Amino acid sequence: MMEKEIWKTIEGYDGKYQVSNLGRVRAMWRNNQYQNHIGKPTILKPGKHKQGYLQVYLTLGGKRKTYFIHRLVAEAFIPNPKNLPQVNHKNEMKTDNTVENLEWCDGKYNSNYGTRVERWKLQVAKPIIQTTIDGKFVRRFESAESAERECGYDASYIRQVCTGKRPQAYGYKFHNENDLKVPADIHTKEDGKTTARQMIEILDYLFGDED
Question: Range of 73's domain?
Answer without folding.
Answer: 7-112
